[in-house]
Amino acid sequence: MSVTTLTRVQILTTVALVCLNSTAMAEWGKGTVQDPITLQYTDDVEKDWIEGIRFHSETGNYVITYKDHYGFFNQLVYEPTSKIEPTLRSKLRQTSNLAIRYQYSVRNGKAAQQNIVWLSTFVSNLNAGSPMDPPGWEGFAMPGVKTSHLKLSWSYVGKDRQEVMSGKRIGIAPGGKADGFALESNDLPGVAPIEFRGQRITNFAWLGNAPEFHSPIGQEVEKLKVKNVVHRVAAVPLVRVETPYNGAAVLDSLRVHITQDIVELKLIEPQLAAELDRVLQAAAEAIRRNSLKAARDHLHDAFKLVHKAHPDVDKDDWEAEDDDSKNKGKAGNVHPIDRLAARVIAFDLKYIEKRLN
Q: Are the CB atoms for 133 and 181 separated by under 8 Å?
């Protein structure tokens, strides 16, 4: 390796990178350096090494520096799977058997640098035959590790083996979209975060061995994985509807979802959430007393609160509902509730009122 090459590698990896951990101490040693521009490897580089993760602003990738079990250092380029611009639209429809059909459309922004190949969320329950998939995608649900909910995911597997083996970019390309993500559930909708991942253009493989999970660099790698997804929100089954049906219990579940989950997602102002909680609690108590007229009046009051906060709740287009979520807390967003959250709560209120009959 020439002096010019070594100098260029060291400059790119120590000057042009924004350090995420400036407290680590340098250690002299020998190791392998991957150039963040060319992605070529240079072996037997002797220099001062600093374990940590650095952001390379020119490529948008990260450089991970770590010491392996053999005592050698490795400096590798890590491409995040977050170079995407997903937009997700939800559409809800009640079927003839009182189940709810959830349909989704996913777009990828024109400025994205990667194709969308994976999305995932948590749901309370699914009916048989769910999830349903667009061509080339495969959906599956499994019990969550730390929750009583199901983890629902769709991943792009290819329309045929030849497409997958071609090595080409697959999934939802920048500027493209995919329809046909769908499921059915007897549970009512709530609002949940959806995680999206893009397709890496560059391959990544650890040299020597991966950093130990409990080591300082291992903990930084875990934090990087959290940044490796893009979050949006969608309407998914979350408000449980038990059999036999109990309207008061459904309202209790909806109240918890509003005052905890939707508030935590910052999709509703706490004051509005408290007002809805008070009215819905009164409606639940009226149902328990079998005072159906009083229950309807309270449900109407709740709907008025939501409608006043976001007048779009009475429309049926369900278009671009995640736009408000991107602007929540920013100047110009005058609604005390996000549009999707308002539409979901209004849908649930109408469903509960219908079943009072």
A: yes
